């Protein structure tokens, strides 16, 4: 290309014959998969896709790319030539749908318009072409309704109210019983609604309809519900959506037509079989909206055997091709099957584990790929308690088990109330006839969702499964009255708003009141109370067992526990912990021992201080003997005392009142007065940044050496009893190497004394906690005196961001999340750009000084799935987390290693 030539403009529109499933970034998931199915020779209606790049230009500038209109026109001309029809022509019109399609599935969150091309003129041509006047006018009223709501912003309830009046006038209850004359009147009513509410006539020009619909789909990327869904699912906000323009095929042409959704396996359980919903004489939105109750997909065999058999063959083809559970949308037009969409289907946590192992057994994927098909969030969900099936409870209904879990809460009947009550600390169950995308914020706020309509493919079911939220759908025996805020159950009992109900997403059962819960079988498996392969373990535990074995074989990161006593240590060991990464010794001094520490801190004389230390030493030694016994043969990192000082001092207000009362009564109060003066002297405005950690150890002589002696003597005692103690001593809150050197010198001297006194050689590693920015920035120096670093990411996050977790989470985090400043709380998932960069830099600098430096993390991020992947990438040796999160960390460590291997191979 010469200097004067302009670079070739990027292609903005792709025919379905031009793309493939690898182009999701450009064509979105729907467009890429429509192209893939076309390439496979499956019956896909012809069409084309406008790229996400066109959307990004539009969203950035407010205008479509200059070349877009011409490219769309060229592809529309080609489509018209292929179909032998012109968009919206009078006699035999071509009609198209305009659908969104982002890279990641966002069910129901963005806009779709069907039947574009219909007008007052072309509706007559469609009636003649189809030989069915009722069908044509039904399609036209659907277009005006969808276009009015989606493109022109008309309140959708106005159309629904007009539709209800039409059914009342005809004295029918379902849309399909309206006749052509009724639908003609409805079209007139809908057009009047558009004129009044939008201030313009419904457009009769088919190209104007299409162009406005394309813009509406672009705009819907930044709609409130789409942004909320992306925040919930952590989908990037800068991807944009593709737009798919597809020639219409009609499922509402009579009893030999219909529409459906199918899954190649049950998305709730993972079992193989025929799963899905079918609705005769309907268009696609009718199924997912849950407005009309569907029939099970298996009934299609008796309705239309030819289409059913063809669909089964296609489903097998797609599952083998995608090597995963596929979610399929299809339409049958007068006996002709058409594929409208496929995607890798959302599934429950249990189904994810079962399907992954099934596909390994079928030879479709290997163990490494199986690890990528599940995640730690799903495993955590499987560890939640379940309802006690033996409890005496009142079952009042049963629906479809759409998304598992045991949810208890107060019944609420709209999203606004769900959000309001949830923010006030109430647990709620959102009860609706059916949900729609506008209910998303209420679904997020609720413990679970209950609907009286819809099936496993309804909006409520699909979105709930994606969020891991408990859901029961299609509980038809429950009469939900959202206007009166009540639900009537069989037998006439009325559940008012605020009454407690329980729903079981695994069985579909609905109960009055609160049902007691029992431990999950997955937790029982991890605790050794249920064994994989045992008769009562079931397929789920077997699948979890196998996936965890894959992960443990793959992972490089070791997983330790945060545990402060022998009981927690033993539980952590059962969960698979490979040691203790954080034993917080300050937790050992709460309760009865608090007074001893208080006396030590407030001691005026060396004798008082020594007396307190001598009283504490045997208690500390006993703690460590128990801990080292529980973790025999595994490393135990003991953090020396790190309390904010105020936790071990009397409350200053309470003490002041006591002294004032004593003075007013002229009672003796010398001890309290002396104590108050000491507390005033030591009082801090911000204790979290005050006299704590290594500073406390340096200011109070003998405190740290007492703890080191207790650790050393306990280790010596265990070795004498033929145990294998592997203690590590961690100095907290170090900001400069000089602090560490002073404490280390004292500790080494104490250890030598214990070795000499017991005749036992001890190997006690001494390291530090990196939890201050200065420590991270001077890691090369600190590594000269440390044998290991453990990153305390909770405090490091506070000190890097400059805010106190206890104060800010309640005050402004919600606003920051809603405004997109935070994608997720930095205390939940590590801030890679800020805190993470310090961790990476400190790890690198520390190892440059000391190549054998052991690196770990002991903040709460150690059990967070996304953070575990980051710690793998920066080369840490282990993560440490609470006992309950150990299986999650093990799984994610395996996934991180497997993913890294896959990247290397690519």
Automatic annotation (TrEMBL):
Start and end residues of each PEP-utilising enzyme C-terminal domain: 543-894
Domain PEP-utilising enzyme mobile residues, every copy: 426-508
Name this protein carries in UniProt: Pyruvate, phosphate dikinase
EC numbers, comma separated: 2.7.9.1
Catalytic residues identified in the record: 459 (tele-phosphohistidine intermediate), 858 (proton donor)
Binding site residues for Mg(2+): 771, 795
Pyruvate phosphate dikinase AMP/ATP-binding domain mapped to chain residues: 65-293, 299-350
Residue numbers binding substrate: 584, 639, 771, 792-795
Names of required cofactors: Mg(2+)
InterPro entries, per database record: ATP_grasp_subdomain_1, PEP-util_enz_mobile_dom, PEP_util_AS, PEP_util_C, Phosphohistidine_dom_sf, PPDK_AMP/ATP-bd, Pyruvate_phosphate_dikinase, Pyrv/PenolPyrv_kinase-like_dom
Entry's family note: Belongs to the PEP-utilizing enzyme family.
Catalytic activity field: pyruvate + phosphate + ATP = phosphoenolpyruvate + AMP + diphosphate + H(+)
Species for this entry: Streptomyces zinciresistens K42
Gene Ontology molecular-function annotations: ATP binding; kinase activity; metal ion binding; pyruvate, phosphate dikinase activity
Keywords recorded for this protein, A-Z: ATP-binding, Kinase, Magnesium, Metal-binding, Nucleotide-binding, Pyruvate, Transferase
